[in-house]
Amino acid sequence: MGQSHRLSPPTPAQDCQELTDVERAIETVINQFHCYAVKGQKEYLTPNELRELVVQKLPHLGKVKCVGPLDEKIECMGDPDEAKLEFGEYWDMMGDAAKGCRRK
Amino acid sequence: MGQSHRLSPPTPAQDCQELTDVERAIETVINQFHCYAVKGQKEYLTPNELRELVVQKLPHLGKVKCVGPLDEKIECMGDPDEAKLEFGEYWDMMGDAAKGCRRK
């Protein structure tokens, strides 16, 4: 797996408090993309890599019915080892899963 | 602020292990929307509510230059107290901030 990535607080120096819980959460979602996007060297995920991420890291979210499980979406991505999913599309997919499991 | 929301693992019962770090991260991002979407009763955020979220919860991410700071995007949303940002648009904005601070 690729190494993880640290969100570095931007300058100026005094802005150096710790990341908030939400920033750490976003960092965690970014890191998963980097960890699993090995073939694409952090530029893209293949369907196989994304499926591995979903199975290992989204055992519950990945099965949310009301949105249509993620593996159906992965099926439509094309060649399991050649198709390329960039970060933006990955983020959108995570959003679909998030929308699916939002309960009021 | 609205109360938070728990991602409940879907049935069947044996699928009851704890959420993974990524699922908890996604849950955290969802919860912020619910916490700040008071006027819209968790259905939408107003620009003012989103600005408050960004200032309080994204002190670093919100200032990421390369994407264009979030407050510029909030400016374009319309009436600060009347315009409505639904969950999908909120998730997209968090994705913009995430894209902006991804470092290879």
From TrEMBL, chains A, B:
<dbReference type="GO" id="GO:0005615">
    <property type="term" value="C:extracellular space"/>
</dbReference>
<dbReference type="InterPro" id="IPR011992">
    <property type="entry name" value="EF-hand-dom_pair"/>
</dbReference>
<dbReference type="GO" id="GO:0034142">
    <property type="term" value="P:toll-like receptor 4 signaling pathway"/>
</dbReference>
<protein>
    <submittedName>
        <fullName>S100 calcium binding protein A14</fullName>
    </submittedName>
</protein>
<feature type="domain" description="S100/CaBP-9k-type calcium binding subdomain">
    <location>
        <begin position="22"/>
        <end position="63"/>
    </location>
</feature>
<dbReference type="GO" id="GO:0032496">
    <property type="term" value="P:response to lipopolysaccharide"/>
</dbReference>
<dbReference type="Pfam" id="PF01023">
    <property type="entry name" value="S_100"/>
</dbReference>
<dbReference type="GO" id="GO:0042379">
    <property type="term" value="F:chemokine receptor binding"/>
</dbReference>
<dbReference type="GO" id="GO:0048471">
    <property type="term" value="C:perinuclear region of cytoplasm"/>
</dbReference>
<dbReference type="InterPro" id="IPR013787">
    <property type="entry name" value="S100_Ca-bd_sub"/>
</dbReference>
<dbReference type="GO" id="GO:0005509">
    <property type="term" value="F:calcium ion binding"/>
</dbReference>
<dbReference type="GO" id="GO:0048306">
    <property type="term" value="F:calcium-dependent protein binding"/>
</dbReference>
<dbReference type="GO" id="GO:0090026">
    <property type="term" value="P:positive regulation of monocyte chemotaxis"/>
</dbReference>
<dbReference type="GO" id="GO:0071624">
    <property type="term" value="P:positive regulation of granulocyte chemotaxis"/>
</dbReference>
